[in-house]
Amino acid sequence: MFNSFSKNSSILGIFWMIITSFFFVGVFITVKYIGTDLPASQSAFLRYLFGTLILFPKIITGFKNTQMPLTKIFAIRGFFHAIGVTLWFYSMTVITIAEVTAIGFLTPIFICIGASFLFKEKINGYRLLAIFLSFLGALVILRPGFKVFETGHGCMLLAAFVFSFSYLIAKHVSKNKNSAEVVAFLSFFTTIFLIPLAIYQWVNMSIENIILLFLTAILATLGHITMTMAIKSAPMVVIQPFTFLQLVWSVIFGFILFQEKIDVFVILGGVIILISTSYLTFYESRIKIKKS
């Protein structure tokens, strides 16, 4: 009976992760379509502003039930995330969707490294192997010396690194808040910190771009919700490999919609990084089971 329940939960988790991959790639497509029509800071600000409006009731409730020390931590997360999304939006306009997706797979590895410093977690042998494999995957994607290293590549690498701080803070605050409140606070404070640069670089917008950014906010919000449902339904070790679907959709839609060349090395590097993060997730889950 228990095995049947566990199996059904895993299937449900996989289902929600597949849906999540479509939502997030939908975000990639809308942002890529807008391209350089708007500065990255303005696009990022409007995406999070619309997200804040969608989550506004949850934000009001969250402020009423949250003490100031924890609110400050949420604000710090918003600061880091604002930097990350600005870099991400810029990268999306200058390199391929597949490259952005593949390099983004490095975030869990940066989280692993950051946890060793912030939470004093030891970097054991399996973690070192995962870090080494991810580094190898990044080299395959970027191919220094054989391929031009563009600004977008550097910005996306930095974005993946900055996002790791955001997610580490999320791990810390999730002990006190549910996932909906964590997402709501993230949207609110990220919007606040994006305001100065967005105003400085502000340009006139078309109605089409406003609609696309509102659609981006809806897709991103739904993606966070379905991802949370996936995590609740099944262990990370089960659903982690299905994040690879984001790379699959990115390659397909990038080729069909934007005539982006299919780069075998980007796919290979993304697979290597994904294998390393799945390997890391697998061992982390085994250790948790042994401790419990």
Summarize the structure.
This protein is 83% helix and 0% strand. By secondary structure, the chain is an all-alpha fold.
Write a structural description:
The structure is a single chain. This protein has 292 residues and is mostly helical. The protein has one domain (38-291). The chain contains 13 helices and no strands. It has helices at residues 2-34, 40-54, 56-64, 68-94, 97-104, 107-118, 125-142, 151-173, 179-200, 207-233, 236-239, 244-258, 264-291. Mean pLDDT is 84; it is low at 1-5.
Topology:
Layout lengths: L1 H33 L5 H15 L1 H9 L3 H27 L2 H8 L2 H12 L6 H18 L8 H23 L5 H22 L6 H27 L2 H4 L4 H15 L5 H28 L1
Helix pairs in contact: 1-10, 1-12, 2-4, 2-9, 2-10, 3-9, 4-8, 4-9, 5-8, 5-12, 5-13, 6-7, 6-8, 7-13, 12-13
Features:
292 residues, mainly alpha, disordered N terminus
Indicate how many domains the architecture comprises: 1
Mean pLDDT: 84
Radius of gyration (Å): 19 Å
The percentage helix is over 70%
Helix/strand-derived class?
mainly alpha
Count of separate DSSP helical elements: 13
| Number of E-type strands | 0
Order of helices and strands: HHHHHHHHHHHHH
Stretches where pLDDT is under 50 for at least 5 consecutive residues are 1-5
| General shape | globular
Assembly state: single chain
Calculate the terminal CA-CA distance, rounded to whole Å.
21 Å
Instruction: Please describe the biggest sheet, giving its number of strands, its sense, and whether it closes into a barrel.
Output: none
**Strand residue percentage:** under 5%
